[in-house]
Amino acid sequence: MIITRMLVATLGVAVAQVAVGQVVAINFDQTAAGTPLVAPGLFTNAEPLTTEYSSLGLVVSGPAAGSGAAILDQISNFGVAARSGRNFLAVNDFASLSGGGVSSDPVIFDFAPPIRSLTLFISGGAQSAHFRLEGFDAAMQSLGSINAMSSIGAYAPVSYMPASIVSRVQIESLDDPDFVIDDMFFQIAPEPNGCVLAMAALLALRAGVGGLARRRPPREAG
């Protein structure tokens, strides 16, 4: 979230002005800085994805430290190509990672700042698969879950937008030990009361300018 501090010097008031509804896109083909990301084709040469995209508001984890989903090249033979570029985020419950962990689900996405909505594409690759996506608020209270199904060799689009803002999303397969995720889009939630504060600042500024105008001494007659 981009936050700009607006200092109204004449009033001595500082107000946070928030960019509402910013959409972040992650395709796993680039780093957070935008440089190309060359991914391995085997889990044994990969590390679990964790903080690569933290500057964009996303941290990824798995069921235990050192385990979880990894970014792989589409040559990894999942039975489905990447949707954009060559890479996707991959899971295989039986695959060992370079550090000794296992690339198993659930895939946990933590968002800071929290988000308003999430869209992604998920596939079981060479077989049809069923998935569950569940969201949580900042207190880790469930916001409800949705299910999705992907057909053989295809991606299922999944969109999640509960009534409250989301701090965590957890994704797991219900019947497939390996699957991939590609092309994530999430919308940053607005700063709480950000619009109200901005409006209050504008009203205060108008009132202050009006007060200064009223206090201006009258011009003397020439």
Helix and strand arrangement:
Blueprint (H helix, E strand, L loop, with lengths): L2 E6 L4 E6 L4 E4 L31 E4 L8 E4 L13 E6 L14 E17 L5 E8 L5 E9 L5 E5 L5 E8 L4 E11 L5 H22 L7
Antiparallel strand pairs: 1-2, 3-12, 4-7, 5-6, 6-12, 7-10, 7-11, 7-12, 8-9, 8-11
Question: Nutshell version of this structure?
Answer:
The chain is mostly beta strands. The chain has one helix spanning 194-215, and strands at residues 3-8, 13-18, 23-26, 58-61, 70-73, 87-92, 107-123, 129-136, 142-150, 156-160, 166-173, 178-188. It is globular, with a radius of gyration of 24 Å.
How would you characterize this protein structure?
With 222 residues, the protein is mainly beta. The chain has 2 domains: 1-20 and 190-213; 21-189, Jelly Rolls. The protein has 1 helix and 12 strands. It has one helix at 194-215; strands at 3-8, 13-18, 23-26, 58-61, 70-73, 87-92, 107-123, 129-136, 142-150, 156-160, 166-173, 178-188. The strands form 2 sheets. Strands 3, 4, 5, 6, 7, 8, 9, 10, 11 and 12 form a 10-stranded antiparallel β-sheet that branches. The protein has a two-stranded antiparallel ribbon with strand order 1-2. Strand 8 (129-136) and strand 9 (142-150) form a beta hairpin. Mean pLDDT is 83; it is low at 1-18, 194-205 and 207-222.
